[in-house]
């Protein structure tokens, strides 16, 4: 008899997703009838402060992706973006002044006036 003692562990990242953000993202996917996608956050060069966030739904897995799940919503971060996002919190706000996903990143030393990019 052969026993397989190996375990598959998925590497995780340090991004947090609030309950409000997880429920909103899951609700958007549910509206579209999609259960094959996850939320992906990436950091790319750009914007007036040097770096820009990209937050989108993705159905692709990439080499080196890191994953965590929050209230049924799976969140992917690529290995290059992970150091920039360690400790970041993604939230969803819905007020009379603002509606949308927000990112509170303790690694950002500054941002542009429009809030679209950071450094």
UniProtKB/TrEMBL annotation:
Domain Core: 15-116
Domain of life from the UniProt record: Bacteria
Alphabetical list of InterPro entries matching this protein: ATAP, ATAP_core_dom, FeS_cluster_insertion_CS, HesB-like_dom_sf
NCBIfam families assigned: iron-sulfur cluster assembly accessory protein
Protein name: Iron-sulfur cluster assembly accessory protein
Organism phylogeny: Bacteria, Bacillati, Actinomycetota, Actinomycetes, Pseudonocardiales
